[in-house]
Amino acid sequence: FTFRPASAVTIGAAFWQNIFGEHGLDSNGVYNGTSELQLERMSVYFNEASGNKYVPRAVLVDLEPGT
Protein backbone atom coordinates (compact mmCIF):
# COMPACT_ATOMS: atom_id res chain seq x y z
CA PHE A 1 0.00 0.00 0.00
CA THR A 2 1.38 3.38 -0.98
CA PHE A 3 0.16 6.50 0.77
CA ARG A 4 -0.54 9.30 -1.67
CA PRO A 5 -1.23 12.72 -0.13
CA ALA A 6 -3.34 13.85 -3.08
CA SER A 7 -5.62 10.89 -2.42
CA ALA A 8 -5.95 11.92 1.22
CA VAL A 9 -7.07 15.40 0.17
CA THR A 10 -9.60 13.87 -2.23
CA ILE A 11 -10.97 11.66 0.55
CA GLY A 12 -11.11 14.66 2.88
CA ALA A 13 -13.01 16.69 0.29
CA ALA A 14 -15.53 13.86 -0.15
CA PHE A 15 -15.96 13.71 3.63
CA TRP A 16 -16.75 17.44 3.78
CA GLN A 17 -19.17 17.19 0.88
CA ASN A 18 -21.06 14.50 2.80
CA ILE A 19 -21.02 16.50 6.05
CA PHE A 20 -22.35 19.59 4.24
CA GLY A 21 -25.32 17.55 3.00
CA GLU A 22 -26.01 15.98 6.40
CA HIS A 23 -26.12 19.43 8.00
CA GLY A 24 -28.41 20.99 5.37
CA LEU A 25 -25.74 23.21 3.80
CA ASP A 26 -25.35 23.95 0.11
CA SER A 27 -21.89 24.04 -1.53
CA ASN A 28 -21.46 27.70 -0.48
CA GLY A 29 -22.08 26.91 3.18
CA VAL A 30 -25.54 28.48 3.29
CA TYR A 31 -28.00 26.66 5.54
CA ASN A 32 -31.06 25.39 3.64
CA GLY A 33 -32.10 22.65 6.04
CA THR A 34 -35.32 22.34 7.99
CA SER A 35 -34.17 20.64 11.19
CA GLU A 36 -33.50 22.33 14.52
CA LEU A 37 -31.22 19.38 15.32
CA GLN A 38 -29.01 20.25 12.34
CA LEU A 39 -28.58 23.79 13.64
CA GLU A 40 -27.94 22.64 17.21
CA ARG A 41 -25.09 20.40 16.06
CA MET A 42 -23.65 22.74 13.42
CA SER A 43 -20.77 23.82 15.68
CA VAL A 44 -19.35 20.28 15.75
CA TYR A 45 -17.88 20.76 12.27
CA PHE A 46 -18.59 24.39 11.32
CA ASN A 47 -18.13 27.98 12.46
CA GLU A 48 -20.77 30.54 11.55
CA ALA A 49 -19.19 33.16 9.26
CA SER A 50 -22.26 35.38 8.91
CA GLY A 51 -26.04 35.05 9.04
CA ASN A 52 -26.85 31.46 8.05
CA LYS A 53 -23.48 30.89 6.31
CA TYR A 54 -21.07 28.34 7.77
CA VAL A 55 -17.44 27.41 7.08
CA PRO A 56 -15.72 24.09 7.89
CA ARG A 57 -13.46 23.98 10.93
CA ALA A 58 -10.63 22.38 8.92
CA VAL A 59 -8.03 23.08 6.27
CA LEU A 60 -6.85 20.37 3.85
CA VAL A 61 -3.32 20.90 2.52
CA ASP A 62 -1.19 18.75 0.23
CA LEU A 63 2.50 19.44 0.92
CA GLU A 64 3.77 16.84 -1.54
CA PRO A 65 5.71 18.62 -4.35
CA GLY A 66 4.33 18.08 -7.82
CA THR A 67 0.85 16.91 -6.86
UniProtKB/TrEMBL annotation:
Q: Return the protein name.
A: Beta-tubulin
Q: Which GO terms describe its cellular component?
A: microtubule
GO BP: microtubule-based process
The record's annotation in SUPFAM superfamilies points to: Tubulin nucleotide-binding domain-like
Taxonomic superkingdom: Eukaryota
Regions annotated as coiled coil: none
List the Gene3D superfamilies. Tubulin/FtsZ, GTPase domain
What is the species listed in this Swiss-Prot or TrEMBL entry? Glomerella acutata
Q: What is the lineage of its organism?
A: Eukaryota, Fungi, Dikarya, Ascomycota, Pezizomycotina
Ordered alphabetically, the record's keywords are:
GTP-binding, Microtubule, Nucleotide-binding
On whether Oxidoreductase is a keyword of this UniProt record, the answer is no
Family classification: Belongs to the tubulin family.
Recorded hits in InterPro entries, A to Z, give: Tubulin (IPR000217), Tubulin/FtsZ_GTPase_sf (IPR036525)
State the Gene Ontology terms under molecular function: GTP binding
